[in-house]
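From the pipeline queue, job 12 of 40. The input is one protein chain; the requested action is below.

Action: predict structure.
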Amino acid sequence: MRSRQSGRSLLGALVALAGAAAAWADASPVPVTVAYGSLAFARCTLAQAGQAQTVPARCATLQVPEDRSSANGRKIELAIAWVPSTAKTPARDPVVMLAGGPGQSALEAFPLVYPAFREILRQRHVLLVDQRGAGRSNPLQCPGTLNDEALRLLDTAGVDEARRLTTDCLQELGPHVDVRAYTTTAYIADLEDVRRALGIAQFNLVGISYGTRVGLEYLRRHPASVRTVVLDSVVPPSLALGNEHAKNLEAAVDAQFARCTADVECTKRFGSPRARLDDLLQRLREHPQHVTYRDPLTNEQRADEFTDAALASVVRFHSYAPQLFGMLPMLLAEAANDQFGNLMAQSRMLEQLIGEQIYVPLQLSVMCAEDAPGMRVDPADAGTLLGTEFVEYTLAQCAVWPRGTPPKDFHGAVKSDLPVLLLSGELDPVTPPRYAEEVQRTLPNSRHFVFRGQGHSVLGVGCGPRLVAEFIAAADAKALDGNCLDRLQYSPPFGGSYGWDP
């Protein structure tokens, strides 16, 4: 059972917006159709629930040790998908997509981002490897404890309840799972095992959000195995995930609302959305609203409580995509007039579609090992949308979650002369452009493009797919002509019930 993310608790970590959970489904029980290296691949289909888009692929598994320090111990299976190139003679070095999270399945995320890879597929195969603990790679799940309903209530339940649920999850996983072994470092070793099994000399890496941490760490540990690297929405190695979530969101929200206040018609209709948001947050802290609404996914009539945490969640998830953010002035205006139905419906939909992507125990294993030691509660965050709860909940959960030990240089800068292309959204509320700038300082053969007016994960925006394909083909970031990005425009600052309504 994959669990949804709340607005403020631990379950609000980096997420590359790759849509709802997807299914791994065999097209038919056919025998092996092709072999790559030592692995036998059968036909399969990657399909996303609720979406018409399906991706034909070939799927295989590879056994690896759960505990990398004990090769003779328990084995786990990695799920692998090979998306064939459309070229008659594809290049020998495939592209590996590294999904976000932490805790997202690459195979499940790929169908929605597939359009961004069409140009790449004209020249190269795309390889997907589910991170151990996600998807079909020995998934870590706690449906009896860290389930949808429990996680939804965490924001109001407190850190003691978060600690209790986390302890119960460990018991539910049982003694045959060592959660210390499910880290970025272990995933890097898994990817290298996959490369060797396939008999491939080098990978081209495309990391999205948390996947950029994976890509950078793979580059650090196995530089000879890498040809090129694309980093979309960059997580610098120095960052402890969560420490700056609140500040980054505030900056992005203020920047996007400023576009409304600078627009005469938007101001006329909605006044100051930021002031209205702050008023609503305070009102909801004091008196949560009981709301009757129609569930946008089931069309059922429902009744639920709308809280300040739910409002923060809606604003946060809308901020990932400025195209969605333009809805907020209208939604906030409705709520100010005691019409919470549309906000509640948005909250419900986003919780289900986005939260189902994350395998929560894997997220805990990664963050407790790699981020919690550097996380600090900043009192200055208390008055923000996210507040201090994210860090407080993470530290509470990690106090009882067994953690692995990353290498000593894990948070140090990655230095490399290999070609690297960095992409950022100007208005990204999670990984702002300054993160890519930090990483770029030790990558002399790199180029950084900032996508005007865009949010989190920009690989598929505008001419992004073509630029990335050209970069991978030529292995030369500095030769790219990025003038096509000048055509990107800001999304309208507000919309009406039927779309953009200037």
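Job complete. The longest helix spans residues 245-261.
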